[in-house]
Amino acid sequence: MPLHYGSQIEEHHRVRRDAGVFDVSHMLVIDVEGVAARDFLRRVLANDVARLVLPGKALYSCMLNDAGGILDDLIVYHLDARRFRLVVNAGTAQKDLSCLTATRDQLAFDCALQPRRDLAILALQGPGARARFWHVREAAHALTRDLPVFQGTDVANLFVARTGYTGEDGFEIMVPVDEVVALWRDLIAASVTACGLGARDTLRLEAGMNLYGQDMDESVTPFECGLAWTVDLKAERDFIGRAALLGAAARTRLVGLVLLERGVLRSHQALRTVHGDGVTTSGSFSPTLGRSIALARVPLRVEVGDLVEVQVRDKLLAAKVVKYPFVRMGKSLLTS
Amino acid sequence: MQLPADLQYTDTHEWVRRHGDGTVTIGITWHAQERLGDLVYVENPQPGKSFKKGQECGVVESVKAAADIYAPISGDVIAVNAELASNPEKINQDAYAAWMFKLKPSDPGEFEQLLDSVAYEKLITAESA
To answer: Which one of A1, A262, A266 would you mutate to disrupt binding with B, by most B Cβ within 10 Å of its Cβ?
Structure first.
């Protein structure tokens, strides 16, 4: 996946306004299958797959280490009573497989872990994305027309899910490797814009979605990354990292920043707040808003509306703490 | 992209246009903007400031990266292209027309150290190889 095919900003706008396609085949699909698949995932994921009742329903979750640090973030699909499908980050895939295998073996869960390197993934995103898919794969229309958000379904040898990483409607399509080129070409021929990693990053940042390795890693808990909503602490379910999460209070939180001056925020820039120092974890120019935005890790007491100063080279630039997402379904969510 | 033969270049990808009155106009090359991608921010030097050859005197930022601009020769800044503040994409559209700033050179001998279009073309060919 290149950074961009042509203009990165144009690719970004095409996704917000019409339809773009990303080749995200670097991500790994792992199928978990067996009588204990469900119990196993309830043990290794911070979110509870018991919430998944309907076949095809998806759940976003972190996978934690014993200290509550984030090993990876992923989407898990409930295929049927004995089968689940994980989609994990590329950079962490090997580590994830090792951890999952070790836990399974150690606690003797009766399930198989199958890395599906035979599957490619295309993310088709934007307000016009679904119609484009139906245009190039007419037979899929009846099966996916009423597919709810955050749900997937088999369509012949494809797996089509109404998920994404852009804040727009669309599908993520898992497709056998030897068929992906044809699907890609058909979509491009249907005037879907080929989009690169650059647009993927600005789109997900505007949508307020964390990037693993940047906004979160093993040194922080989900509570410090705006992901408390993905941790299911209730009832008697024990999962890896749970005890640590119950025992330790969050020291920092993740907030959105909007730059009030000209310039571009980047990751790893130091910042000052009235409650102490912080650091940007992701930052970029937002093509939709026409200004720079960032995610930042700050002391817990920093609140929406606070003004902060970000160190950009030799200058301190003023920024405002805002709620994120910044953009959703093509529209700015900033109030001022 | 054909390199204008009437310009001189640096190995840090600035171009220099010499004028009859002894002043020079400076911008970044087509090759530089191509590598950076869509520009979203230009920081020009303050008019009146002096720079030594090779000194950092500005910044251009694209969606994906920031790059320092170095003074191709020593001199005083006599003008900046204010249009770039609100329209940095002008550089992407026409890198050799969208100038950044003008200098009054303090050491005309330094012109000999700049690259001509043939030498600059060799440099970028080697860099992309």
So the answer is: A262
Please list every residue in chain B whose beta carbon sits closer than 8 Å to the beta carbon of residue A7. Answer: 37-38, 92
In chain A, what are the domain boundaries?
26-101+220-248
For A85-127, the DSSP string reads EEEE-TTTHHHHHHHHHHHHHHHT---EEEE-TTEEEEEEEST
- B3 occurs within a structural domain: no
pLDDT per position as a tens digit, A282-322: 999 999 999 999 999 999 999 999 999 999 998 999 999 99
Query: Is CATH 3.40.50.720 what the domain over A26-101+220-248 is classified as, yes or no?
Result: no
In a domain, B42, yes or no: yes
Which chain A residues have a beta carbon less than 8 Å from that of B85? 262
Q: Which CATH number is B62's domain given?
A: 2.40.50.100
Quick: pLDDT tens for A78-114. 999 899 999 999 999 999 999 999 999 999 999 999 9
- Please answer whether residues A280 and A105 qualify as being in contact, where contact means their C-beta atoms are separated by less than 8 angstroms: no
Q: How close does chain B come to A286, measured CA to CA in Å?
A: 8
Rounded CA-CA distance A330/A272 in Å is: 31
Tally of CA atoms within 13 A in the half-sphere of B52 that contains its CB = 1
Q: What is the ipTM of this complex?
A: 0.83
* Domain that residue B39 falls in: 8-110
Closest by Cβ to A7, choosing from B38, B59, B85: B38
> How many structural domains are present in chain B?
1
Residue B36 lies in a domain: yes
Interface test with B, best of A8, A10, A204, A292 (most B CBs within 10 A): A8
